[in-house]
Design brief:
With about 150 residues, this protein is mainly β. It has two helices and nine strands, in the order E-E-E-H-E-E-E-E-E-E-H.
């Protein structure tokens, strides 16, 4: 069958940035399985998969607007160094996880550090990037009623 809304789709993929660096890959893992049409994967990849079928192999280039969005400068913030008490060796490029107190964990990248302040970036690490996907469609099937009720693939 062809991929349509409410198909359960399994893909293998390799994600490369504009510099040719492999950013993410399903090669070492199980295929990515998702419920098509529900926005559970980035919109550019979802629309590129629409109408494909098992065994299809393709490449697609996705702009930030259909990927992880543009970099939002309001999401780059300077906070007092004291907020990071207990964290040694703070340095630019360091990934951190921050709990916002509502049970949401945010992935944060340290951009700058000095004695008083730390600049952190809470943009998605792939925000602002053009994404190049190599995709293989492994399987396509209809969703089970339970999967539709839950809004995700099992
Ligand atoms: Zn479920």
């Amino acid at each position: 069958m062809n991929i349509e809304k409410n198909s359960v789709v399994a893909i293998r993929y390799k994600l490369t940035d504009d510099e040719g660096t492999v950013v993410d890959s399903s090669e070492e893992q199980k295929p990515l399985t998702y419920l098509h049409g529900g926005g559970s994967i980035i919109s550019g990849l979802e629309s590129a998969l629409d109408g494909r079928t098992t065994g299809d192999v393709f490449q697609v280039t996705i702009q930030p607007a259909e990927g992880y969005g543009d970099i939002n400068s309001e999401m780059i913030q300077t906070v007092p160094r004291s907020a990071f008490e207990g964290i040694e060796n703070l340095e630019p490029g360091m990934p951190l996880q921050a709990d916002d107190g509502n049970g949401n964990v945010h992935h944060v990248i340290v951009r700058e550090v000095n004695d008083q302040e730390v600049t952190i970036d809470v943009n998605h690490p792939l925000a602002g990037k053009v994404l190049h996907f190599d995709v293989t469609v492994e399987s396509v099937r209809e969703a089970a009623p339970e999967e539709l009720a839950h809004g995700h693939a099992h």
